[in-house]
Design brief:
- The protein is an alpha+beta fold.
- The chain is built from eight helices and ten strands.
- The protein has a four-stranded antiparallel beta sheet with strand order 1-8-3-6. A four-stranded antiparallel beta sheet has the order 2-7-4-5. Strands 9-10 form a two-stranded antiparallel sheet.
- Strand 9 and strand 10 form a beta hairpin.
- Helix 4 packs antiparallel against helix 5 and helix 7 crosses helix 8.
């Protein structure tokens, strides 16, 4: 995403978060741009029955929660850390100034937002599908595509099966499936040689 040195130059600052700490809540007014230095964050919300739906998982070097900064709307989801996490924050006004002055950084943000919009568009039809395998494959293909795009120089590494660092529960929460369905479907996918399991770890 944006070079941390540039964020600091525009009055960005680092903040430490503990595991399971809330970064912002659904309904709050957006005041900062957030970029992870080290750690992991999930954006989530809940339906009327209390079932969690994970909107996205973000890790080192990635930003999250930008759309409301541009739309003048409140956050549609929560952001919660999954492990001890260090985040670079920059105020909304300083972030705007940065984008006006730093063309490359501006395009980096546009690229990230476009990628997430693409993910939403390919997942939307599958969420309404009863085909659990299709839902999971769509998610795994997107994750692998993102990995390849962010490691363009490591072509040999891209040829290898990718370790998918998601729990079965997280896959369920990202696809709208029950965790029991995910566990069963993953076993079937392994039998059909669509994925590989090693000591419970999923490779695709």
């Amino acid at each position: 995403m944006i070079d941390p040195a540039i964020l600091l130059r525009y009055r960005g600052f680092k903040k430490e978060f503990d595991k399971n700490e809330t970064v912002f809540l659904q309904g709050e007014e957006p005041r900062y741009y957030y970029q992870i230095i080290q750690g992991k964050v999930k954006m989530n919300n809940y339906n009327e029955d209390g079932k969690e739906f994970i909107q996205g998982l973000f890790t080192d070097g990635e930003s999250f929660g930008e759309p409301p900064l541009f739309c003048a709307i409140n956050y549609p989801a929560n952001a919660v850390t999954l492990q001890p996490t260090t985040i670079l924050l920059i105020s909304k006004s300083d972030f705007y100034t940065l984008l006006e002055n730093e063309t490359k950084s501006c395009f980096n943000v546009l690229e990230a937002l476009s990628s997430r919009l693409y993910y939403k568009s390919i997942m939307a039809p599958d969420i309404s599908s009863n085909d659990s395998e299709k839902r999971i494959l769509t998610l795994l293909n997107y994750i692998k595509t993102q990995h390849i795009e962010s490691n363009k120089e490591g072509n040999k590494e891209n040829d290898k099966a990718l370790y998918v660092d998601l729990t079965r529960q997280q896959i369920a929460d990202m696809t709208g499936l029950r965790v029991e369905t995910v566990i069963r479907t993953i076993k079937e996918m392994e039998t059909n040689h669509l994925i590989r399991l090693e000591k419970g770890k999923l490779f695709f």
